Amino acid sequence: MLSITRDARALATLTLDRPQARNALSGELVARLTEALAELAGDRSVRIVALTGAGNVFCAGADIGEMRAAGAASPEQNEADSRRFATLLQRLENQPQPTLAIVNGAAYGGALGLISACDIALAADSAHFALSEVRLGLVPAMISPYVVRAIGARQAHRWFLTGETMDATTALRIGLVHETADDAALTAAAGRIVDALRAGGPQAQAEIKQLLRHVTGRSAPGDQAMLADTASLLARIRAGAEAAEGLSAFLEKRRARWRNPD
Fold first, then answer.
1. DSSP 176-187
2. Between vectors from CA 158 to CA 86 and to CA 81, what angle results, nearest 5°?
3. Distance of CA 17 to the CA centre of its chain
4. What is the C-alpha end-to-end distance of the chain, expressed in Å?
């Protein structure tokens, strides 16, 4: 479900490993990833943390079956489920080590939150991306602060509202990723970034991450309030009739009713 490897470069690589589910973010995977990041945060032998997916998919986003079940649960359970993913994104962004997303294939929905919460994002030329929540009757609530910081509000309007799929070239152009590489050269490209990061002082890098939050007007209380607000928003939308229809349509492999002609 989550594979963790370390190498001689002081790089820890976290690999989402649910190939049968396209590396979708189940509740268990979210919990294990959050725990792994917390453990690595205090490990001085780790200089860089990379995040990637097993096989030829980065991450298909949320586990749709679990999303539907959460929407049908009690309001308290629904919101608690939302908060777990919001906490993961906050943990990833606050990781003291530099973080590198290595996007080796398709990335949908919540996966774009993971990418945007990392300090640096590298994508294979074959990778494609979509903020697909709207097509399920959902909103990209918890990932929105991270994605908007990456691509800006103007681009977010288009991609949040349409749910269109974009290619790696478009992701690079709008700022979702920093660099793209031929699929066969992805590992080498990641290695160059890792080497560049290793040339910097680890304490300075941790301080730079804090500095960037400060100079962009961020604060811990503000971030906590945003986490609570976005988790509450998703819980409310997910419990509604439109989301229930969108999630059911996806699982039943049919068009949602709002796409059917009158």
1. S-SEEE-GGGHH
2. 20
3. 15
4. 43
At 55 the three-state DSSP class reads coil
pLDDT tens figures, 182-199: 999 999 999 999 999 999
Q: How far apart are CA 43 and CA 30, in angstroms?
A: 20
DSSP 119: S
Q: Which distant-in-sequence residues (6+ apart) come within 8 Å of 163 by Cβ? A: 130, 131, 132, 133, 134, 135
Cβ(14)–Cβ(4) below 8 Å: yes
Q: For residue 111, which phi and psi values (nearest 5 degrees)?
A: -60, -35
Q: In DSSP terms, which residues pair with 6 in a beta bridge?
A: 12
Q: What is the domain partition of the chain in residue ranges?
A: 2-198
CA 122 from centre of chain: 13
pLDDT over 90 (residue 261): no
CA distance linking residue 90 with residue 142, whole number of Å: 10
The string of pLDDT tens digits covering residues 16-64 is 999 999 999 999 999 999 999 999 999 999 999 999 999 999 999 999 9
CA 67 – CA 238 distance, rounded (Å): 8
65 burial class (0-12, 13-18, 19+ CB within 10 angstroms)? middle
Task: Strands of 32-103 (E only): list them.
Answer: 48-53, 57-59, 99-103
Amino acid at 8: A
Helices (H), the chain: 27-41, 64-72, 75-93, 110-117, 144-151, 153-162, 168-174, 186-198, 202-215, 220-238, 241-251
CATH of domain 2-198: 3.90.226.10
**Pairwise CA distance, residues 61 & 242, whole Å:** 19
Which among 46, 53, 54, 51 is positioned nearest to 6, based on CA atoms? Answer: 46
Q: How far apart are CA 244 and CA 235, in angstroms?
A: 12
